[in-house]
Amino acid sequence: MSSSGGQTAIIGAGVMGETLLSGLVRAGRRVDRLLVGEKRPERARELEERYGVAAVSNVEAATKADTVALVVKPQDMAAVLDEIAHVLRPGQLVVSLAAGITTAFIESRVPEGVAVVRVMPNTPALVDEGMAAISPGSHCDDVHLAEAESLLSSTGRVVRVPEKQQDAVTAISGSGPAYIFFVVESMIEAGVHLGLPRATATELVIQTLYGSATMLRETGTHPVVLREQVTSPGGTTASALRELESHKVRAAFLAAMEAARDRSRQLAEGS
Ligand SMILES: NC(=O)C1=CN([C@@H]2O[C@H](COP(=O)(O)OP(=O)(O)OC[C@H]3O[C@@H](n4cnc5c(N)ncnc54)[C@H](O)[C@@H]3O)[C@@H](O)[C@H]2O)C=CC1
Ligand SMILES: O=C(O)[C@@H]1CCC=N1
To answer: What enzyme category does the UniProt record give (predicted)?
Structure first.
């Protein structure tokens, strides 16, 4: 297992592949224990230079590694599995970070006995504040699951969930940072519209987000209670919240996350 000195391969080194790679390096994983398989040669060279890791073919990565992390797009997963399946062996661990792709899909394309774990991470892993949910496949024992947990816990929190919850997890925490950045962007633009310098609006919004997130995590208080504390009777916040309700922002969030969940299900079908 890689935590005890074996090799870990990352196949697909785009945004999320590099996020995982950089987290493992920051967590002290020896770079000579890491391998990268990346289709774009210039991207592979870039990562070799940035981290000192070896970029090799997917087949070499899958042959040498005890743990193979697949971080390609869902639409590329079948092609990668077809390429590496003949070198995978029982006992090896395949960790998939792809939205929608089920452990059953992977298990049907690799040799019997290869352990598979499905993971849904998110990009705050880049600053060691990631949220990852992991689910075991059918040939996965506790050691494999612990190995996947250790891989992801180097960049943030990890929860274990039944695989049937992974499409919902994808809609909430996998895509979640994008919704938050969208809200931040909208608030900054609103600040500029109200006459604030852009730099001031940006600082106000980011610190407000950070402070609010810290209150949620450190006090454990329900968000409704925290919101009521801000909402003075007849005051400014009540006026703003009435607008959000009349523009159906709550309903829009629900519809958005249902759409993300449904898209995750579609990706499982290869579309
Ligand atoms: N970006 C995000 O916030 C999150 C992404 N994911 C999942 O991570 C996976 C990758 O997403 P991104 O990093 O955003 O995409 P990306 O497009 O940035 O990275 C994919 C990488 O895979 C490489 N690739 C494609 N085919 C390959 C092959 N046959 N062999 C080796 N490398 C190959 C591409 O050149 C590219 O560098 C997806 O399955 C996505 O669902 C999961 C959670 C969050
Ligand atoms: O947008 C996507 O499909 C990926 C999965 C979750 C976040 N990004």
So the answer is: oxidoreductase
| 104 and 53 housed in the same domain | yes
Report CA(153)–ligand 2 centroid distance (Å). 20
pLDDT tens digits, one per residue of 21-41: 999 999 999 999 999 999 999
Q: Is the CB of 97 under 6 A from ligand 1?
A: yes
Q: What angle do CA 54, 59, 65 make, to 5 degrees?
A: 60
Ligand 2 atom 8, closest CA: 175
Ligand 1 centroid to Cα of residue 71, in Å, is 5
Give the domain extent around 193.
Answer: 176-268
pLDDT at 4: 43
Question: Among 115, 139, 168, which residue terminates a domain?
Answer: 168
**3-state DSSP call for residue 7?**
coil
Query: How far is residue 182's CA from residue 246's CA, in Å, rounded to a whole number?
Result: 19
Please check whether residue 145 is in contact with residue 133, taking contact to mean a CB–CB distance below 8 angstroms: no
The per-residue pLDDT for range 91-125, each reduced to its tens digit, is 999 999 999 999 999 999 999 999 999 999 999 99
The alpha carbon of residue 190 and the mean position of all alpha carbons in its chain are separated, in whole angstroms, by 29
ipTM of the complex: 0.99
On whether both 117 and 181 belong to a single domain, the answer is: no
Instruction: Write down the pTM of the prediction.
Output: 0.95
Cβ–ligand 1 contact at 10 (below 6 Å): no
Q: How far apart are CA 76 and CA 265, in angstroms?
A: 16
Q: Which of 170, 180, 182 to mutate to test the pocket of ligand 2 (most atoms within 8 A of CB)?
A: 170
Query: Which CATH number do you get for residue 155?
Result: 3.40.50.720
Choosing from 113, 134, 168, the residue where a domain stops is: 168
